Amino acid sequence: QVQLVESGGGLVQAGGSLRLSCTSSGRIFSNYAMGWFRQAPGKERELVTGISWNGGTTYYAASVKGRFTISRDNAKNTVYLQMDSLEPEGTANYYCAATLKGGSYFTEIRVDQWGKGTLVTVSS
Predict the structure, then answer these.
(1) What share of the chain is helix, strand, coil (3-state, %, to 5)?
(2) pLDDT, tens digit (0-9, with 9 covering 90-100), for 79-99
(3) 25-40, pLDDT tens digit by residue?
(4) What 3-state class would DSSP assign to 86?
(5) What burial letters (b/e) apply to 5-27, b meaning 16+ CB within 10 Å?
(6) Ramachandran class of 45: left when φ > 0, alpha when ψ lies in -120 to 50, beta otherwise
């Protein structure tokens, strides 16, 4: 029943930065571990990053570690994805996801609710 709404996508040049936000409603936000997936043209959807319910643990895909940062503000029912040093390979639809199953790393089968996605385009 939780609903997720992403914002912040857009067009940026390689090397630039972008911050995505995902705001939830319908359930107590702090009950959920949160994550960001992305799907590039012609590729499978992949987990980019995840964060536990209290922010105590995080996961980053090797391709983004050191450049992307996930954070959450449970008082605002919001999770953020700060993306720095963006590369053209980062062009994708980015999806916010929530799970009651815990952890910070999770696969699509563990997702209880998906956002509708926001498009990030990185030009070379």
Answers:
(1) 10, 50, 40
(2) 999 999 999 999 999 999 999
(3) 977 788 899 999 999 9
(4) coil
(5) ebebbeebeeeeebebbbbbeeb
(6) beta
